[in-house]
Design goal:
By secondary structure, the chain is an alpha/beta fold. The chain contains ten helices and ten strands. The strands form two sheets. A five-stranded mixed sheet has the order 2-1-3-10-4, sandwiched between helices. A five-stranded mixed sheet has the order 7-6-8-5-9, sandwiched between helices.
Amino acid sequence: MRRLALAVLVLLSPFARAGEVQVAVAANFAGPLAKIGEGFTAATGHQLKVSSGATGKFYTQIISGAPFEVLIAADDETPRKLVAEGHAVAGSNFTYAIGRLVLWSPQAGFVDAEGAVLGSDKVRHVSIANPKVAPYGAAALAVIKARGLTEAITSKLVTAESIAQAYQFAFTGNAELGFVALSQVAVPGKPVSGSYWLVPPRLYGEIRQDAVLLKSGEKNPAATALLAYLKTDAARAVIKDFGYGP
């Protein structure tokens, strides 16, 4: 009788039905998602299987049949487009964070508070994410244009596949400066390395980052649970700690 009771408790436990969810996440949010994933797994038992990269590349992969179940994008346009084209579940997309762009150097004191260094002769290379597939890259070009530096900077641009690679180019010295996400340089619990200019949003527009349930994850409880968890206070606290806007 005791064994039967234990068996019933195990079957009723949410962890007995714990599953796995295939997540495509924008490179700028890979760090926060790793932290959020710890809380998500602890609360639900579900595991994340994560691929990070450029949102535009994920779009191409998803419409070509890639088995992702949730997209955590770096913009709001791509999730809307996937819904409109029938690749994502209508009404499931929502904004989970507002991205913040920074001009960063691993060298302390190199970047000034107004970002004037961007137009300096001592800068020979500036890394950005590919603006064709990465919203942060498109935002970087908007900043350069707003500052009237398009002609001066274009030949200095080093284009990366994603915001993660743009960070690596600057970190390794292949570029003196890099346009990256604030979340990459202001990691909770760690001192900010180097120097950066927090670019005013008026220079590039709001980076609304949306998540969406893809059609392949519609019947996966782990996928719907992840999207629900992104809206919890616990997840929002992590998102805020990494420097994203509400």
